[in-house]
């Protein structure tokens, strides 16, 4: 059982109408994606020809920040605001798709970009699944 799952199990109130599994999966995917994007941006900075990776670094950093914020908001259940949550999860889905597309352009040359693109795709799918139940 993951920390996110255990914390939600311990929440003293109702989690609302959200599918608990979809919520946990999205929180975990966001955190994994944030880490992958942060590491990918750093790895890009260490590559020769870093100037060719500027757009990738920017997409990584933006996606990492959006994913982190999304995980934090999803983890807070007290006085849950579905409109804010929906908007943020949708923004996260878009940031993940954008970052995945950019990283995929460099995936054949840089393994870290391939791994990051996969994490972004998984996170985007988790966001899409959660959006269906918000």
Radius of gyration: 15 Å
Q: Distance between the terminal alpha carbons, to the nearest Å?
A: 24 Å
**What overall geometry do the principal axes of the alpha carbons give?**
elongated
Helix percentage range? over 70%
Low-pLDDT sequence parts: none
Number of domains: 1
Report the biggest beta sheet as strand number plus sense, adding barrel if it closes: none
CATH architecture label name? Up-down Bundle
Strand content: under 5%
Helix tally equals 5
> Could you report the average pLDDT, rounded to the nearest whole number?
94
CATH class category name: Mainly Alpha
Topology as H/E string?
HHHHH
Task: State the total count of DSSP E strands.
Answer: 0
Q: Which structural class should the secondary elements be placed in?
A: mainly alpha
CATH fold title: Substrate Binding Domain Of Dnak, Chain:A, Domain 2
Give descriptors for this structure.
single chain, 134 residues, mainly alpha, 0% strand
Please describe what this structure looks like.
With 134 residues, the chain is mostly helical. The protein has a single domain (3-9, 17-131), classed as Substrate Binding Domain Of Dnak, Chain:A, Domain 2 (Up-down Bundle), CATH 1.20.1270. The protein has five helices and no strands. The protein has helices at residues 3-10, 20-46, 54-75, 82-104, 111-131. Helix 2 packs antiparallel against helix 3 and helix 3 (54-75) packs antiparallel against helix 4 (82-104). The longest helix is centred in the N-terminal third of the chain and has 27 residues, at 20-46. The radius of gyration is 15 Å and the shape is elongated. The model has no long low-confidence stretch (mean pLDDT 94).
């Amino acid at each position: 059982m993951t920390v996110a799952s255990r914390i939600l199990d311990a929440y003293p109130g109702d989690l609302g109408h959200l599918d608990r599994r979809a919520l946990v999966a999205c929180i975990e995917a966001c955190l994994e994606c944030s880490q992958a994007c942060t590491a990918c941006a750093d790895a890009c900075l260490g590559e020769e020809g870093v100037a060719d990776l500027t757009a990738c670094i920017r997409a990584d950093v933006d996606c990492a920040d959006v994913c982190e914020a999304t995980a934090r908001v999803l983890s807070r259940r007290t006085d849950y605001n579905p409109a804010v949550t929906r908007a943020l999860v949708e923004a996260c889905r878009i940031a993940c798709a954008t970052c995945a597309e950019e990283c995929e352009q460099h995936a054949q040359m840089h393994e870290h970009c391939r791994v990051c693109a996969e994490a972004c795709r998984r996170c985007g799918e988790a966001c899409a699944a959660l959006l269906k139940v918000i």
